[in-house]
Give the backbone structure.
Amino acid sequence: MKKAIIIGATSGIGKGLAKLLVDNNYKIGLTGRRVDLLNELKNENSNFYIKAFDINDTNVVEHKLDELTTELGGLDLLIISSGIGDINDTLAFEIEKRTIDTNILGWTCIACWAFNYFENQKSGHLVAISSIGGLRGSRQAPAYNSTKAYQINYLEGLRQKAKKLNTSIFVTDIRPGLVDTEMAKGDGLFWVMPVEKTVRQIFKAIINKKKVAYVTKRWRFIATILKQIPRSIYDRM
Ligand SMILES: NC(=O)c1ccc[n+]([C@@H]2O[C@H](COP(=O)([O-])OP(=O)(O)OC[C@H]3O[C@@H](n4cnc5c(N)ncnc54)[C@H](OP(=O)(O)O)[C@@H]3O)[C@@H](O)[C@H]2O)c1
């Protein structure tokens, strides 16, 4: 039985992935801050193990991950699905700071722990859910898009590092478009994809050890367009 940890499994994409992985014979450690939701999941399946912590509390993260890995009896796959993103039209610094703390500081703490664990073990798979938003800036949520750009760049660095080490460490960057979760609420959203369809495509990308995957597939088309919009036009959008 393969062993996995999902960071941010209490809702949305992380929760969807937890259900899919457990149906595919994984033993999984689930994390998040909402203890009640973690307990609900634990009651659903004996192959769910839970650990509640805030990834921004970087003093405890490593210890919590060590404990959870011991409970699982090892680790083959770690998925970072945790993340926050708020519209911040007034550029309130508190919102930007919260986003940076979660999507950069806490996120990096997890990524470092996972990579170092896999390097010691000489194998493993790190998967992170970044976003198509990381491809360009956003006037409505500047911190969100730039933290996602950071994640995309960081994952590329880790992939390069893994290659140099010449071990069986894989790094997958999943870039969703819009997915029907608590995060993607608002007016005027289009092509909002169901969680079930999205996680099925993420699972396929994991199994195939893809380096980068846009989910759902139609969002690859938007990504191609986004990357090509000239700056003079993008600045006016
Ligand atoms: N939905 C979309 O349209 C979309 C599009 C592109 C990318 N994404 C990315 O997909 C990932 C998953 O998002 P989602 O759509 O599934 O949203 P979600 O339902 O809000 O899930 C976010 C998860 O992150 C966890 N989390 C947030 N802050 C945390 C913290 N400080 N410590 C520990 N856990 C924390 C939450 O758990 P607790 O609240 O229990 O802590 C929750 O389980 C995110 O990285 C997001 O940026 C989403």
Observations:
- The first helix runs from residue 12 to 23.
